């Protein structure tokens, strides 16, 4: 009888354990869903020539990283300037939805959106550190997107050239008088300031710069910085290489995305694009610094090239003219004024901290 009772107890215990195990299974209405396996194919155009170091290469690396991070769900085919559309029609193509993405710099659209130049670079403005801080943490990116909203375009920072060089000159610049009548390839707001100084700004495509300088069609040109300038051969066309690049202290490169295309993406792919853009923004600006440092050594070793600083009085005059030019534009363009005031307010606050942190540290190293 005792044996029978034990057998019954064991059987009942088994039934209880079995029931508890069944209760722990997933509820019948619960579904576990993974990412969609749909493959999305986008097209991206840039303003850069095919194979252009750092800038075009960075755009292509950005697209490759997105494909990898998305597990192949988002494939972006990148076209260099002129391969699909003319380079300076990039913004328009993205705006109209002819392509999904673009890569260039906001000052290329200055004729259509003058205020866009603040999201690229401003003479005597903020460097890459200040620009990134303003865009990511100071409200700059939010304002940038508001300015682009009527065009159905969503912008992201995607690279920075850093502080550029002042340019190549066929004669020494000893005073502001030497700028008068000087024919120089210099676009954007910097060109407007140069004109106020008595110079003659000339607009030329990159492919025309070397020939124009070598044949004295122009007297001077700015391009980018040592790495790209050396690659273009400008050191063979002019002797005097001036610094600093007062006209472009930290040119932001931009990723533009068509709004409708962006909204069609699931949240995880939107997050991948945002993260990849931030990563490439850092990578591209770091790559510029590394390559410029190496190229500068090569230029310093050349006896023909003379690397010189602009005289203090020249920079002081150009800074004064910059302030006049910006104030004039703000007085005639409400949107330009809005962005100018936001940019200036942040720059003033940021400069107060920068003066006793990084700039103070750099001064201490020089003593």
UniProtKB/TrEMBL annotation:
<dbReference type="GO" id="GO:0055085">
    <property type="term" value="P:transmembrane transport"/>
</dbReference>
<feature type="binding site">
    <location>
        <position position="223"/>
    </location>
    <ligand>
        <name>Na(+)</name>
    </ligand>
</feature>
<keyword id="KW-0479">Metal-binding</keyword>
<dbReference type="InterPro" id="IPR038404">
    <property type="entry name" value="TRAP_DctP_sf"/>
</dbReference>
<dbReference type="InterPro" id="IPR018389">
    <property type="entry name" value="DctP_fam"/>
</dbReference>
<dbReference type="GO" id="GO:0031317">
    <property type="term" value="C:tripartite ATP-independent periplasmic transporter complex"/>
</dbReference>
<dbReference type="GO" id="GO:0046872">
    <property type="term" value="F:metal ion binding"/>
</dbReference>
<protein>
    <submittedName>
        <fullName>ABC transporter substrate-binding protein</fullName>
    </submittedName>
</protein>
<feature type="binding site">
    <location>
        <position position="248"/>
    </location>
    <ligand>
        <name>substrate</name>
    </ligand>
</feature>
<feature type="signal peptide">
    <location>
        <begin position="1"/>
        <end position="24"/>
    </location>
</feature>
<dbReference type="Pfam" id="PF03480">
    <property type="entry name" value="DctP"/>
</dbReference>
<feature type="binding site">
    <location>
        <position position="222"/>
    </location>
    <ligand>
        <name>substrate</name>
    </ligand>
</feature>
<dbReference type="InterPro" id="IPR026289">
    <property type="entry name" value="SBP_TakP-like"/>
</dbReference>
<feature type="binding site">
    <location>
        <position position="185"/>
    </location>
    <ligand>
        <name>substrate</name>
    </ligand>
</feature>
<keyword id="KW-0732">Signal</keyword>
<feature type="binding site">
    <location>
        <position position="164"/>
    </location>
    <ligand>
        <name>substrate</name>
    </ligand>
</feature>
